[in-house]
Amino acid sequence: MGKFTRFLCRGGTWLSALLALLLAAGCASAPTPTANEPDSPLLRLAPASLGRTLALHQQLTVAARGQTHRLDVILEADADSVRLAMMNLGQTVARLQWDGRELTETRASWWPAAVKGERILSDLQLVLWPAQAISAALPGGWTLDAHDTERVLRRQGTVVATVSYPSAAHAELVNLQHGYRLSIESRPLGGLT
Predict the structure, then answer these.
(1) Which helix (H) or strand (E) holds 76?
(2) CA-CA distance, 16 to 20, in Å (whole number)?
(3) CATH architecture of structural domain 3-188
């Protein structure tokens, strides 16, 4: 069993909770893509295309612009939906649910409006969903190279983001387009995966 397969069995995600954490901390003025450099495509893959169920507790460590922040995430996914709760200092600050047709968000009043659920879902799917499903959904000019220990997202041959899986419970994302690094430690939630 490859490292990526073991990682999926034990779970892991990076999500754009990273962006939420950076915005909430006041340090996320990520560069906006120009007309010549469009933002990464938004994935909208069916929950069933994951091909498994997940129930995970994750600790995210975000490094950007010389600062480091942490956030806890609870993720549950099955054939019908993907459910996500983001927590800061033990309080749930945002919830997302995706059923393959509609993305529903609830958030604390102070949670940044600039943090979009569609980006969180897309990031989640880039890390966890099967590479074949992702590749089939990418627009023209975008490619995903995937191996047991790494994924590389490219636009017209230029690397935009990488995800590596150094162990079964650990993943790291480097987003070159928005200038951040995310480390994810995952463990089963209640013994379920």
Answers:
(1) strand 67-77
(2) 7
(3) Clam (2.50)
